[in-house]
């Protein structure tokens, strides 16, 4: 048996990472640079998919992508999602090598079993996903792509948790570029169908999995051997409850995000071809708004390890302050983006999309509304992750999912696609209200200005003129007053901006 570590060695392990990390300010700078390039590529890719694919094939890709995002965390029981919370914990205890080895083996085994079952029952899966057994031949391609998606998610979660944002940036950027290049190439020279898009996404994820594996192998040699290897029962009894609730949150949140499209397929009363075409219209309204959601998710993933570190030090009030600031700043920025998107949308739909998706343009205001709310819900979830109260997040998304299904069942038959999107927006409103209420019940200090800015996205559904007028008032108050952002919050924003600016100048 190894000797117990001395106090000095333990302190050294706890204070010095065994791998190169990235500071929060530099992480945000890398994220900003990543966003400019990656989201620009993603926007062009999404626009060209809408322009080149028939509406039915676009809807088919939307349904498959939604399934991949749902099934990715599902088949591995949420284990990679726990990295943001526990990598730092086990690093400080000198047990990082054991943590990485055990979670990697579990992820590989679970993903292999899940994808094998999907391949085996491909006909049943086609009926569930598309209400059309004739689409069963596409399911094996989806199963192979799912394995690659699981691997890609694994490495992104791991490197974010290890605060290696340069590697995260590289993975995300390479994935986005390859997906765009291969996808557009296959559409032009192979087959103008959803299958080409699915193949290209799987190939892009596979390449980045290889990249991540090479880097992990290199870093593995730098991780010291554990002073005390935790018993399997001790290890999994701590990790699995958190991972299980995170798994439930991922399941419920992803169902919450995709259920309206599957309601359209199964409960609109249309034929499979007509309903999938309607999903294509819906997808066109999400091409630009969903970029905001993706950016918000990246910010949340980067911020979680830093919030967890503050929480581990007992600085609970600081976590509340940072989350209030994140919620308010996110609402202001995303509302501004939504207004710009709304004002420029007629040109996009009429000229770029060649007038193919009039239904998407019609529901765009409410699509933007629920995208902003959905992002804010994700920000609020960070508090429950830090507090290890992930079961509360499951409650939020569970009630939101039930509301989404119920409201869609009521409004979809009456108003068609418009009813489905309004139902989803109302369900997201319920989710953000519940998330903030429960966070307050578990100790988070919720500011009145946070509640105001969380409610403000509702104005987007009422028209761009109303939303823009109110946003200008809020912006003026944020700059000249102290009700939206207090003096300390303004100073924090200014300090962060100064750090980012200085780092950006040092890199140019």
TrEMBL record:
The keyword Membrane applies. It is found in: Cell membrane. Its main location: membrane. It is a multi-pass membrane protein. Keywords: Cell membrane, Membrane, Transmembrane, Transmembrane helix. The chain crosses the membrane at residues 28-48, 60-79, 99-121, 133-156, 168-190, 196-218, 239-256, 287-304, 325-349, 364-385, 392-411, 417-439, 451-476. One of its GO terms (cellular component) is plasma membrane. This is Uncharacterized protein.
């Amino acid at each position: 048996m190894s000797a117990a570590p001395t106090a000095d060695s333990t302190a050294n392990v706890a204070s010095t990472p065994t791998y190169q990390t990235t500071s929060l300010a530099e992480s945000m700078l890398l994220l900003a640079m990543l966003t400019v390039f990656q989201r620009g590529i993603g926007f062009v890719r999404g626009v060209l998919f809408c322009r080149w694919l028939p509406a039915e094939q676009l809807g088919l890709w939307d349904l498959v992508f939604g399934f991949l995002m749902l099934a990715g965390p599902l088949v591995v029981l949420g284990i990679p999602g726990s990295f943001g919370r526990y990598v730092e914990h086990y690093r400080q205890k000198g047990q990082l090598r054991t943590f990485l080895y055990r979670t990697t083996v579990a992820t590989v085994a679970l993903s292999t079993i899940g994808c094998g079952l999907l391949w085996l029952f491909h006909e049943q899966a086609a009926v569930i996903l598309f209400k059309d057994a004739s689409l069963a031949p596409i399911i094996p391609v989806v199963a192979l792509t799912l394995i690659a998606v699981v691997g890609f998610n694994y490495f992104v979660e791991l490197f974010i948790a290890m605060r290696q944002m340069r590697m995260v940036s590289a993975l995300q950027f390479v994935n986005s570029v390859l997906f765009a290049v291969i996808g557009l190439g296959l559409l032009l020279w192979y087959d103008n169908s959803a299958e080409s898009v699915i193949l290209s996404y799987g190939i892009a994820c596979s390449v980045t999995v290889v990249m991540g594996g090479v880097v992990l192998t290199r870093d593995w040699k730098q991780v010291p051997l554990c002073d005390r290897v935790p018993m399997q029962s001790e290890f999994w009894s701590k990790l699995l409850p958190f991972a299980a609730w995170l798994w439930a949150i991922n399941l419920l949140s992803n169902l919450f995000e995709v259920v309206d499209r599957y309601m359209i397929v199964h409960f609109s009363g249309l034929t499979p071809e007509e309903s999938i075409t309607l999903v294509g219209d819906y997808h066109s309204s999400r091409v630009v708004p969903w970029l905001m959601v993706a950016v918000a998710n990246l910010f949340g993933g980067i911020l979680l390890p830093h919030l967890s570190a503050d929480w581990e030090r007992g600085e609970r009030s600081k976590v509340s302050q940072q989350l209030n600031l994140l919620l308010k700043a996110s609402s202001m920025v995303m509302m501004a983006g939504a207004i710009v998107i709304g004002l420029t949308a007629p040109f996009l739909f009429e000229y770029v999309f060649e007038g193919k998706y009039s239904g998407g343009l019609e529901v765009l205001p409410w699509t933007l509304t629920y995208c902003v709310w959905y992002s804010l819900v994700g920000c609020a979830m960070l508090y429950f992750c830090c507090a290890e109260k992930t079961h509360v997040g499951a409650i939020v998304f569970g009630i939101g999912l039930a509301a989404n299904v119920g409201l869609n069942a009521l409004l979809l038959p009456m108003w068609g696609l418009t009813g489905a999107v309004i139902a989803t927006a109302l369900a997201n409103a319920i989710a953000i209200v519940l998330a903030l209420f429960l966070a307050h019940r578990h100790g988070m200090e919720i500011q009145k200005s946070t509640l105001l800015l969380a409610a403000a996205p509702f104005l987007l559904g009422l028209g761009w003129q109303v939303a823009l007028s109110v946003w200008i008032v809020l912006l003026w108050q944020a700059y000249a007053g102290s009700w939206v952002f207090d003096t300390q919050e303004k100073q924090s924003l200014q300090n962060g901006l100064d750090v980012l600016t200085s780092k950006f100048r040092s890199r140019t």
